[in-house]
Design goal:
Number of helices: 1
Structural class: alpha+beta
Length: about 90
Protein backbone atom coordinates (compact mmCIF):
# COMPACT_ATOMS: atom_id res chain seq x y z
CA UNK A 1 0.00 0.00 0.00
CA UNK A 2 2.78 2.47 0.90
CA UNK A 3 4.62 1.58 -2.31
CA UNK A 4 1.49 2.32 -4.36
CA UNK A 5 1.12 5.70 -2.66
CA UNK A 6 4.77 6.52 -3.37
CA UNK A 7 4.33 5.62 -7.04
CA UNK A 8 1.21 7.80 -7.29
CA UNK A 9 3.04 10.70 -5.65
CA UNK A 10 5.95 10.23 -8.06
CA UNK A 11 3.60 10.38 -11.06
CA UNK A 12 1.91 13.54 -9.75
CA UNK A 13 5.24 15.27 -9.27
CA UNK A 14 6.39 14.34 -12.78
CA UNK A 15 3.17 15.79 -14.20
CA UNK A 16 4.16 19.14 -12.70
CA UNK A 17 7.38 19.14 -14.81
CA UNK A 18 9.38 17.80 -11.92
CA UNK A 19 11.49 14.68 -12.00
CA UNK A 20 11.88 12.61 -8.88
CA UNK A 21 15.07 10.73 -8.13
CA UNK A 22 14.21 7.59 -6.19
CA UNK A 23 16.13 4.92 -4.34
CA UNK A 24 16.65 1.79 -6.46
CA UNK A 25 16.95 -0.37 -3.33
CA UNK A 26 16.79 -0.16 0.47
CA UNK A 27 19.87 1.30 2.09
CA UNK A 28 21.49 4.16 3.96
CA UNK A 29 22.38 7.59 2.55
CA UNK A 30 26.14 8.05 2.87
CA UNK A 31 26.29 11.49 1.29
CA UNK A 32 24.24 14.06 -0.61
CA UNK A 33 26.42 15.74 -3.25
CA UNK A 34 24.10 18.63 -4.22
CA UNK A 35 22.22 21.52 -2.66
CA UNK A 36 18.84 23.07 -3.47
CA UNK A 37 19.27 25.40 -6.42
CA UNK A 38 22.25 23.58 -7.93
CA UNK A 39 22.19 23.01 -11.70
CA UNK A 40 22.83 19.36 -12.52
CA UNK A 41 23.57 17.43 -15.70
CA UNK A 42 22.35 14.01 -16.80
CA UNK A 43 24.45 11.32 -15.10
CA UNK A 44 25.87 13.61 -12.41
CA UNK A 45 26.05 11.92 -9.00
CA UNK A 46 23.44 13.45 -6.67
CA UNK A 47 23.79 11.14 -3.68
CA UNK A 48 25.56 7.99 -2.54
CA UNK A 49 23.53 5.08 -1.19
CA UNK A 50 25.07 2.23 0.79
CA UNK A 51 23.30 -1.07 0.27
CA UNK A 52 24.64 -4.52 1.12
CA UNK A 53 28.02 -2.97 2.08
CA UNK A 54 28.42 -1.44 -1.40
CA UNK A 55 28.38 2.23 -2.31
CA UNK A 56 25.98 3.09 -5.14
CA UNK A 57 25.96 6.43 -6.97
CA UNK A 58 22.49 7.89 -7.46
CA UNK A 59 22.67 9.87 -10.73
CA UNK A 60 20.54 12.62 -12.24
CA UNK A 61 18.22 11.18 -14.87
CA UNK A 62 17.78 14.55 -16.63
CA UNK A 63 19.47 17.95 -16.85
CA UNK A 64 17.84 20.34 -14.42
CA UNK A 65 17.92 22.20 -11.13
CA UNK A 66 17.61 20.72 -7.65
CA UNK A 67 14.20 21.79 -6.37
CA UNK A 68 14.05 19.72 -3.19
CA UNK A 69 16.22 17.35 -1.18
CA UNK A 70 14.21 14.93 0.93
CA UNK A 71 17.06 13.02 2.58
CA UNK A 72 20.18 13.74 4.56
CA UNK A 73 23.35 11.85 5.40
CA UNK A 74 22.53 8.87 7.61
CA UNK A 75 18.89 8.48 6.56
CA UNK A 76 17.68 4.93 5.97
CA UNK A 77 15.51 4.65 2.85
CA UNK A 78 13.34 2.01 1.24
CA UNK A 79 13.06 1.05 -2.43
CA UNK A 80 11.30 3.80 -4.45
CA UNK A 81 11.69 6.42 -1.70
CA UNK A 82 11.94 9.90 -3.23
CA UNK A 83 15.42 11.26 -2.50
CA UNK A 84 15.65 14.40 -4.64
CA UNK A 85 13.28 16.40 -6.84
CA UNK A 86 14.60 18.11 -9.98
CA UNK A 87 12.88 20.82 -12.02
Amino acid sequence: MVKNLRLKLKKLEEQENHTTITSPMPGSILDVKVNVGDKVKFGQTLAILEAMKMENDIPATVDGEVAEIRVKKGDVVETDSVLIVLK
